[in-house]
Amino acid sequence: MPIFPNLKNSDELSALFYRLFVVIFICIGLSFLSEAFLTVNNLLNVLRQASLLFLMASGLTLVILTAGIDLSVGANVGMSACLAGTVLLATGSTTLGFLTGICCGALIGLANGLLVTLLRLPSFIATYGMLWILHGITYYFMAGATINGFSKSFRMIGSGYWFGIPVPIYMMLFFLISGSIFLRYTIFGQQIYALGANPVTARLSGVPVTRRLLLVYILSGITAGLASLVFLARLNSAEGDIGEALTLPAIAAVLIGGTSLFGGVGTMLGTLIGALILTLVLNGMNILSIDGNLQALVTGVIIIVSVLLDLILRRKSVV
Amino acid sequence: MKPILELKNISKNFPGIKALDQVSFSIIPGEVHMLLGENGAGKSTLMKILCGAYQADAGELYYQGEQIEIHSPSDAKKFGIAVIFQEFSLVPYLNIAQNIFLGREFSGWIPGTIDHSKMHAEARRLLDSLSVEYDTHTLVHTLGVAQQQMVEIAKALSQNAKILVMDEPTAALSDRETTLLFEMIHKLKAQGVAIVYISHRMAEVFSMGDRISVLRDGQYVGSADPQKTTPDELVQMMVGRTVDMVYQKNFVSKPGAIALRVENLCSSNGIRDIHLEVRCGEIVGLAGLVGSGRTEVARAIFGADPVTSGRVEVFGNDRVGEPFHSVELGLSLIPENRKSEGLALIRTVEENIVLAGLKKLFPSNWIRLSRSEQVANDLITRLRIATPSGKRPALVLSGGNQQKIVIGKWLSTESKIFIFDEPTRGIDVGSKSEIFSLIYKLVQDGAAVLLISSELSEIVRVCDRVYVMREGTISGELSGDLINEANVLKLGMADV
Amino acid sequence: MSNIHILSKNLGYRNYFQRIPGVAMMLMVGIFFFGILSKDFLSVSNLTNIGLQSSILLLISLPMTLVIMTEGIDMSIGALLTFCGVVMAYTLSVTHSLPIAICLAMCSGLLVGLINGSIIVYWKLPPFVVTLGTLGICQSLALVVTDGQSITDVGEIVQLAYNGKVGGVAIPLIFSVIAYFITYFLLYQTRFGIYVCAIGGNRESLNLAGVSTNFYHLAVYAFSGLMAGVASILLTARMSAGHPTAAIGMEFDAIAAVVVGGTSFEKGNGWLLGTLLGVLTVGVLRNGLNLLGVPSSVQVASIGLLVLVALLIDSMKMKS
Amino acid sequence: MKFKSTRIVLLMMGLTLGIPGKVIAADEKIAVFTKNQTNPFFQAFRLGADSAAKQMGASTTHYIPTKPDSIPEQLSSIDDVVVKKPNGIVLIPVDYKAISPGVKKINEANITVVNATDRSEGGNFANFVGAHDYNTAFAAGTALVKALNGKGNVIIVEGVRGVLGNTDRVRGFKNAIEKSPDIKLLASQPANYQRLQALQVMENLMQTYPKIDGVLAANDAMATGIAEALEGANRKALIVGINGSKEAVEAIRAGKMLASGDAAPFLQGCFATMSVIRAVRKMPVPKEIIFPAIVVEKATLANYDLPPEKQSCPTWESIVR
């Protein structure tokens, strides 16, 4: 059933197929190397870790689909987390905390969107500038402090279980499905694809380009805000630079997932696969306790190889 | 006179299609060899083989009698083959001189360095010979389409080639530049250059051609002598079936209510106080030289360029703001440049077709795949778009079919006003007639059509009324019997 | 070819002024502003100071300009710079011979550059992803070479490369000037430069012109790697040590400097002088704010503002 | 004319008041260099420095790399500060070796400088104030060993590879556990001082190692992250962190952590600043002030009720004799 990408579109399908192949390949490899890998527990654990990355990456996917990029996603998470955390501690009201986190994220997204649409700045630079500004503000107000100790009820969304499955995984599934539906089954999604593929055409075909771009950046902001909440709940504490370490991995996840930096091509499922690949690699390296010095190297190689493999296999299938 | 270059049984296959099948073809110094054929007939493939971009799968090439092989563009250069491509091969942020001599820069005193002054001098000389006077230091991205085409031509000439291949060189040119080009071609002929000239404009074919060859579906159909043949015969050779002559219009249009009214419209893109109105059920032409502001008018009406003053009325209500308002009002624009403005090339045919209609088709904002698929397939069959399936990306189709997609895009919105900007530029006769019969169909169903075209014959044959533009404003309106090429030209030319 | 050419030659002075990018204005404003607020700012020693501090960033921003002109990007350059530095320090600690060390550093830079290039050019993978990969790889290699320690027994001579003077001019400045003019020469006076612009602008036509595009495209990344190697000499000299995390993340500074300098990600539209200005502006800002003793958190924010405002000014100009 | 004279009078009054000023504010400008914005340790250090400066009537300016732990940036800031010529400098080098050229520069400009926390390799300082990372880590490690009665499986979660503090701490941990043969070091993996990464590394390690008795984390943020991981998998292990930060104290009180090696950041800040000011005022300062490696445990919690922002420095004499 084609909720995910356009499964009738053979290109997108094959692209996904080959990426899945990479995932399976890694899994098989790991399960040979360590019996600890292929256990329900560990797989759930991998999924839960991937879900945090995916939350950030899902919004980013939309942005990259429009041939843009959002470097401020990590800084956004940091700021939203700190703000939401402070509110949570101050008011003790979970709902209020939620609202703050999401609104903060959305506002930052909006700011990015305005920079990119109204002022026509290249998104790479606009969001890069935003990154520094957000960090500055966060550092200023946090002054090196950390906030911690949130209510059990709030921490459900990060560390809780439903029917023996961690809550973040449900969130990941929710975002995956709703995201895919949004892209495939609403005219917004279709317009976003078109506008990524060729903004001029999109505009002349009656796509309200500015509005759609704003929407995309706001959504990206919102997912960042939500991610920040899950971080808070999972870690039960926050500091200014939380999430910064995940910016590049999130972007990598989207790109490994087959979304093109030039826009117009890509799917949510692809991004999920990308996130899985990265998480699996880290998980594997910890399980096999590979020397810390080499971990960046392995990740780097995997990034290149996974893209390359996909490319080779696809060339084969074309010719 | 023996041929300078001969192609024997050239074949070229791409996955799926037989682009060229056993094509033989000879080029004789000092003659203009017209190459005709519908888009996708294999003309461009043949050219690409000549200039070394592709290699033939089978067949031989003979250069002045002895067999040769062209593996790369540089080989082609060795044999003095130069090509003027249809889609521009210029580098936007290099200046004219650098573009003309790209890959053949004059070395300075240190190896690897460039002798700028010499390059500009040479470029100057070339441009003068074409009697166009742009500064050779201007970056080409600041030039207009026609100017860029002239640079293209200069670039080809600069290689002082023995064999010159031109693909639709006049497609983007105004009449003045066209005449300049033709003079140049005559000069070259005199110098004994062999010229292969690809065109869809019958007038050119007959005025310039010494010999005519026709390709169809990758096969060599035959040659003809311009003195002894007629347009209809050629068209028949190209299309392979008898088409009633392209523009023939077998109905009388009966203008109805005013659909589009434009009152002293001015825009930052350079047009000033434009007045025009288009009624339902009529075809109104917008003629004028290239650069007289026709496209700009279309864009301003559609809201693609900002309107500084004046107003546009669509069925009585004002059109304001971005294009998407226009679309909601039932206005539609088939832009001049289909690849960069009409299509999202990497998306599928289906997605392109439904793009403009999304809002109309799915007012709930929720897409029913089955519906969009059905709409797309209907249009694909109705417009006879040649594609294996709606799921193929648009970029694999030929120009004519792509143009049909762009039109289909607007048929899926039940829009009532169509602005066609050069709908037949670089399109083969077959698709041309199809597109026109389509336009006629629309009009008979009560749509209003504003047609922009550089081909006077088109304007004259098709339109019920014609507005002629000059220097950014409308210089006159013609209707009824007054519509003839002479009048249109008179109004279009600056006063003599 | 470059905007600068037509500007001077065609449009004449007023337009040239009109075309002054936001970054140049920011630079002037910055200098003026800090000059008034801080007595030390305009002192010769401080200005050289800024020059010295900017030198390393400049050395990697110059090639970054070319890379971006080919519609590519080099995310690995920061990590590569670090790696080369470590290699150099390590070689010094082993051989105590400066020439060998410098040679090795530059070679390893060149090598990684070539690897980047080949993957991008011959396998047609997106530059961003590829260099993101090599970023990780270089980072790891740096750690492996040093095993997470900094290497300090590099001897005294190295420091000269940073602190030394030739004819009263600090060596890093000389490095910068030479590097700038070499790059300028390559970009505006040689085939290479034209082809770089063409690769970004219209690769197809370059192929049809019978130029081996791949070679020049590869050369750009090689150049980028090589310059990272050169910069690593200064880096090592500056710290008189090799450190496995020294320049991590510098690629972003470089990219920002380039883009703020008016080079765009599309169509091979680049401006080298702009890059120089971009680098200097960042340097002036950091230095000035430090002199004024502005809290670090504010500095962080103001760097962001700088980037945005500079581009804003440009986009305003576009509109007008 | 008139008000001019009055102004002169006021000015003279000011002078007369100023004359016995030796005792009160001479208002030295002190530049304080720390490593990054986010680590509570340095925040505490900065607070200590400020409070000390206030007590002694001096003023501080803080220089922190905009990119955490960036060597080139700290070097640049040093250059800038040297141009500015403050009376004294308190320096926590981002890297004890790589910063030495900066130190050289300071010395050349002969500005009084005190080295804090990480002992710089080169250059001459008025004195060194700190508690050695190694010792702290060692003490903390020993605390864990004691709590485990010398046997069990232990994991080390490292900070950023290549950052000095981390290297020393890990060394300290390792030596501490090597002392007792029955303690088995299962793995030592980096988590870059990042809370989240530590948590995920822990989650992953728990998959391979069914029985983990103790965890040594190179800072408190990671320690608390690990605590969360264990709680999430509802498994138990004794966790030891480093820094004695506020959250660690709370965690220990709540029984989530066993202990945290306290490097006394606040005191370090205080005495580093005090000694630089004293040095400037030509008052005697000892060659070095090393704070004994304290370990925060349930027993010693009482001393940590007051958060740094509320504390104020003890008198110089109370510590230095």
Question: What is the second-level CATH architecture of the largest domain in chain B?
Answer: 3-Layer(aba) Sandwich
**Largest pleated sheet of chain B:** 6 strands, mixed
In CATH, the homologous superfamily of the largest domain in chain B goes by the name P-loop containing nucleotide triphosphate hydrolases
How many H/I helices of chain C? 13
Helical segment tally of chain B?
18
Shape of chain B: globular
Runs of chain C in which pLDDT lies below 50 for 5 or more consecutive residues are: 1-14
User: Overall mean pLDDT score of chain C?
Assistant: 86
Which keywords apply here?
C: mainly alpha, two-stranded antiparallel ribbon, 78% helix, disordered N terminus, D: 321 residues, alpha/beta, Rossmann fold, six-stranded parallel β-sheet, 44% helix, elongated
Report on this structure.
Chain A has a single domain, classed as ABC transporter involved in vitamin B12 uptake, BtuC (Orthogonal Bundle). In chain A, 76% of the residues lie in helices and 3% in strands. Chain A is built from 13 helices and four strands. In chain A, strands 1-4 form a two-stranded antiparallel ribbon. In chain A, a hairpin with a 2-residue loop joins strand 2 (161-162) and strand 3. In chain A, helix 1 runs antiparallel to helix 13. By secondary structure, chain B is of the alpha/beta class. Chain B has two domains: 5-239, P-loop containing nucleotide triphosphate hydrolases (Rossmann fold, 3-Layer(aba) Sandwich); 258-492, Rossmann fold (3-Layer(aba) Sandwich). Chain B contains 18 helices and 20 strands. With 320 residues, chain C is mainly α. Chain C has helices at 3-18, 22-37, 44-69, 77-95, 98-122, 127-146, 157-163, 171-189, 191-208, 213-239, 250-260, 272-292, 296-319, and strands at residues 165-166, 169-170. In chain C, strands 1-2 form a two-stranded antiparallel sheet. The longest helix of chain C has 27 residues, at 213-239. Chains in contact: A-B, A-C, A-D, B-C, C-D.
Give the topology, please:
The complex is a heterotetramer of chains A (about 325), B (about 500), C (about 325) and D (about 325).
Chain A (H helix, E strand, L loop, with lengths): L9 H24 L6 H26 L7 H19 L2 H24 L5 H20 L4 E2 L3 H8 L1 E2 L2 E2 H19 L1 H11 L1 H6 L4 H27 L1 E2 L8 H10 L11 H20 L4 H27 L1
Antiparallel strand pairs in A: 1-4, 2-3
Chain C lengths: L2 H16 L3 H16 L6 H26 L7 H19 L2 H25 L4 H20 L10 H7 L1 E2 L2 E2 H19 L1 H18 L4 H27 L10 H11 L11 H21 L3 H24 L1
Antiparallel strand pairs in C: 1-2
Chain D lengths: L1 H17 L10 E5 L6 H16 L3 E5 L7 H14 L3 E4 L8 H9 L3 E5 L11 E3 L2 H15 L4 E7 L5 H15 L4 E8 L4 H14 L5 E4 L2 H13 L5 E5 L3 H8 L5 E4 L2 H16 L7 E3 L3 E3 L19 H4 L2
Parallel strand pairs in D: 1-2, 1-3, 3-4, 4-5, 5-11, 6-7, 6-8, 8-9, 9-10
Antiparallel strand pairs in D: 10-12
